[in-house]
Amino acid sequence: MNPYPAWLNAGDNSWQMTAATLVGLMSIPALAVLYGGLVQKKWAINTVMMVFTTFCLVLITWVLWGFKLGFGTPLVSTFIGDPRTVLGHSALQGQASIPLVNSLVPSWHLPGASVVYFQFVFAAITPILFIGSVLGRISFKVWMVFVPLWITFAYCVNAFLVWGGGYWAGKGALDFSGGYVIHLAAGTSGFVAAAVIGPRLKRDRDRAIPNNLLFVAVGAGILWLGWNGFNGGDPYFAGADAAAAVVNTNLATAVAMMTWIIMDMLISSEKKPTFLGGLNGMICGLVGITPAAGYVNGFGAIVIGLVCSAIVWVAWYYLPKYVWPFNRVDDALGVVYTHGIAGLFGGLLTGLLADPKMIVYLGLGKNPSISGVGLFYGHPKQLLIQLETALTIIIWDAAVTFVILMVIKHVFRMKLRFDDEVLEIGDIAVHGEEAYPSDELISVGSSRADEASPTSPDGKVPEKAVTSGSDDT
Question: Where in the sequence is the domain holding 464, given as residue range(s)?
Fold first, then answer.
């Protein structure tokens, strides 16, 4: 008996499933722990709940219609795919296929299930990333409605246009692993959502103190190493380009993190290196190298890490103070900077630095090898293509995010933002749980052993629980 079909390569498939698992770990637990540690303690459970719930909602949406929307047979020209499920045995165990891409890459050595899951974890992390823009005020019920709609009408369109063989793929746009499809999209949509929903309570904005920096460090470490699967898995083959992408990813990130730390020490008002500053630099490097990872050489990776971190450092300190609309929108964790701006410039730098000697797929016979060619290597149009692709994603995602929220508000008649009374309390009011229960709350819970949560049988929050939950900063 033979466990492998003739077309399947066990090594490629093993790496693809491993890479997908690493990317999944970037969401749960990495971003759950990272974001959960960055927010005030009264929002830690809400943050974790939003991350895990998003992971679930995207997977359900993805297998029912999302994957084929983004990577299936064209439904509307080169704009979107035909929505179908991928639940049958053929879709899961048959040879992987992306109709508009099949003729452009080597024959797939993977089952469909590996590609479906790998692309799912990319789809899932995108709305999870921009949770950071709307923390501390968005209604949990609204978020549960928003996520499937956003994946359907924003993410799947982005994926088809750039990765599924759609319009911008046909024009030669380069986005190795999602600097545009994921990070620019997350920064744009998060910023628009934050503007529409409105700011956090003024007290919470003024006292936005992380509740656990050690948790943040754990989440950041998993996020960084998980990125090896993020960028290393995208060639879909465990070859030389995958290895180069992993090295470039770590190199750009190291340079970016140190760039931010040094700029903090030399230029900031405090003249002190901070962990949160270093974390921002780390994310800038990870995001900036993502569209370029397999297209640039090591020198290109260093340039991307340095430039993206420096640009975002200036934007982080300057735009919120002096430039509209950045000085009017409460982007809680600065997603528009570390993901939106870093993703934009990472993609533009790819248009400059893509090295044709960095081979993604080796050519055989008369078929040429496949690589990217940037402006600095003789392809001046590449930068324009990168810019036009970025503008398409910015405009489309901003419009779709706005429309979805308006539909939820005016058609579904749902409040986008928690009432101020709920915002004062946080997790206990929303979920009946808190991350760091006080001794007072524990004693209340133990004296009422028959109660499943701090809420009373009539659904109201006990007075002592409210007191404990509101003392969070």
Answer: 420-470
